[in-house]
Design goal:
Layout (H helix, E strand, L loop, with lengths): L1 H22 L6 H25 L9 H20 L5 H12 L7 H7 L7 H21 L3 H9 L2 H15 L5 H11 L2 H12 L12 H26 L3 H11 L5 H10 L3 H25 L3
Helix pairs in contact: 1-5, 1-10, 2-8, 2-9, 2-10, 2-13, 3-4, 3-11, 3-12, 4-6, 4-11, 4-14, 6-7, 6-8, 10-13, 11-12, 11-14, 13-14
Family: Belongs to the auxin efflux carrier (TC 2.A.69) family.
Subcellular location: Cell membrane
InterPro entries: Mem_transp_PIN-like (IPR004776), Na+/solute_symporter_sf (IPR038770)
Length: 299
């Protein structure tokens, strides 16, 4: 579990640095803070996704674990949307994403390696999230209409980069090092920039400080930490999957909300409080949840 704890420590440390920079007025305003999100959205994160997906095994994209994750994500998002459907498309999309779109990179990867003993599922989940769910989220957040928004989402830099990376992996191409090395360097800036912006946003208001968005945050957090692992377990049980597959699916479903959810909301300035607070709470609380799951499975 040391690798998982290290992953959480890295995230929380960089969030703290962002908070400290804002508290000391190095990051002086929201416009300065949001520059981190825009650079991550349009440049660094596409580079990270392309370099990660390009090196993945495309044969695992439709494995049983991934199919369970797809179904669990859709079900949990639908539960949230059913409760808060009156709040408007953008707000519902941001909250539903916070409840179901988990961190498959900087927490998912160490969890896959050190808890499951295999990194097979982490990167395919990234591609599935980008291919299926991100266009819908971005469409709801940024489009004048849902249809035009989904079109915009499909053409967003992150989704295009994920598809290009999948094509490279599928064809078995090897990107020359002089080309791939700069892409990987740029991609390495993605997560730190998002986390620092996230930390800076906490300097002006703490988690759950906004009373109006508190019910949405609490439901999204509960669904992410408890609801999604239970849904994943029930799907595995109904499908008759073996214990190892079930364990992998349930552990992945318990991962905290992805920082990308906050990045999407911050980039479009829609429903940021729910996204930010759910990311913050689940990042702290998901580790004990995963430890309990491991204990229940006798691992």
């Amino acid at each position: 579990m040391l690798g998982v704890i290290t992953g959480f420590a890295i995230i929380l440390s960089v969030i703290f640095i962002g908070w400290l920079l804002a508290a000391r007025k190095v990051i002086k305003s929201d416009s300065e803070r949001l520059m981190f999100n825009r650079v991550a959205f349009y440049a660094a994160t596409p580079a990270l996704l392309f370099s990660s997906v390009a090196k993945s095994d495309p044969g695992t994209v439709l494995s049983p674990v991934i199919l369970v994750i797809i179904a669990a994500t859709a079900i949990v998002a639908a539960i949230y949307a059913t409760v808060f459907w009156r709040n408007g498309v953008a707000e519902v999309a941001s909250g539903a994403a916070a409840a179901s779109y988990f961190n498959s990179v900087n927490i998912g990867l160490p969890v896959s390696i050190y808890v499951l003993g295999d990194s097979t599922y982490a990167i395919p989940v990234v591609f599935i999230q980008m291919a299926l769910f991100t266009p819908l989220i971005l469409g709801a957040l940024g489009g004048n209409s849902l249809l035009s928004g989904i079109k915009t989402g499909l053409l967003s830099p992150m989704v295009v980069a994920s598809f290009l990376g999948f094509i490279v992996a599928w064809q078995g191409w090897t990107i020359p090092e002089p080309v791939m090395a700069p892409i990987e360097l740029l991609g390495g800036a993605s997560i730190p920039m998002i986390l620092m912006s996230f930390g800076a946003s906490l300097s002006t208001s703490g988690a759950l400080s906004d009373k109006e968005s508190r019910p949405q945050t609490l439901l999204a957090t509960s669904l992410k930490l408890i609801g999604m692992p239970i849904v994943a377990f029930l799907i595995c049980l109904a499908a008759g999957l073996d214990e190892d597959t079930t364990y992998a699916a349930v552990i992945l479903a318990a991962l905290p909300t992805a920082q990308q959810v906050y990045n999407y909301a911050a980039t479009f300035q829609r429903a940021t409080n729910v996204a930010r607070d759910t990311v913050f709470i689940t990042t702290f609380a998901s580790l004990p949840v995963m430890l309990v799951i491991a204990l229940l499975f006798g691992r």
